[in-house]
């Protein structure tokens, strides 16, 4: 039985159409990501948002809006439906009564990378792919290894040699071959790309494969559902490759076309990066439409150590369309926010997640956020994966 309304893919730059029945990567004409399209008119007629709410919990309850066509191809470890938690104590200190965290740390493999890799590995399985490769700052590799194991695929991972040890161990124990690279994720990407071309591995690099974004977009669906089919005023998101930011912005547009929103007012999207690697922040404030490669990237928030995203154009366009902004925070501020969130609310966040609270503080000081606004910060992973970096 056909369980998805997926129709085709289109290039995010030139609009060229691509078939979803074949293996796709990105548009080689313009070196740009491909975007999944669904027959949202039919979905609007045939789907009732409240029926989807009643289904068994997890990401795949939205399967009509995911790319997999046959249910036997879904590769799941129970990802999605993470808690959206009110933060009364941190909010009180900041003077915000409507502050929430979307806590992605409870996903399988300890980060929201599980969502994207569940979607991508499932579609890869459907298309008959047997071996997958990825360059990673850490968590994407761990997630890929786990889902590939579950799907019976072979996996190969390239990561910087100073990636948190937890990411190396979790990948190897799931059967992946891990190659440690003396360099950054951009160096790992170059090596993985060459290996993929030479030996026929399917490359799951961020945005060079179309479907990881589809898994991550569901964070936007879950937020809409949580807020009774309205959207928060502000979303603060730690940006590496930008999958979640671009994915959620797509989700809001789909939700509008599905007619599921009570109020179509969109959130202002805030991108957060670390001062030691802030290509999006620099491009945003200089008015550029793409990012320059950030040389010598350095931050303890390894997921943010991405010198240039393949989707930089989309990230910047989405932030601007939302009337959002971009903020860089220091590693010192990240560590302080991490301690505060754990001590005041009991949430041991990944440094990337803690960064969103530092940015929030900054935006309140700038009066960019008003005290009565509804704000959602993202904790994208668990602090337990970074024990070698935290005292
Ligand atoms: C990968 C990662 C990010 C960045 O996510 P993108 O959607 O690629 O921008 C943030 N936090 C953590 C913990 C990550 O693993
Ligand atoms: Zn194109």
Lay out the secondary structure.
Elements: E1 6-11, E2 17-18, E3 34-38, H1 40-46, H2 49-54, E4 84-86, H3 88-94, E5 99-103, H4 113-126, E6 131-135, H5 139-151, E7 154-160, H6 165-173, E8 177-181, H7 185-199, E9 202-203, H8 212-226, E10 234-238, H9 243-258, E11 268-274, H10 279-286, H11 312-321, E12 325-329, H12 331-345, H13 351-365, E13 375-379
Parallel strand pairs: 5-13, 6-7, 6-9, 7-8, 10-11, 10-13, 11-12
Antiparallel strand pairs: 1-2, 1-3, 4-5
Helix pairs in contact: 4-5, 4-8, 5-6, 8-9, 12-13
Bound molecules: pyridoxal-5'-phosphate (PLP) and zinc ion (ZN).
Zinc ion is lined by residues 11, 13-14, 16, 27, 29-30, 32.
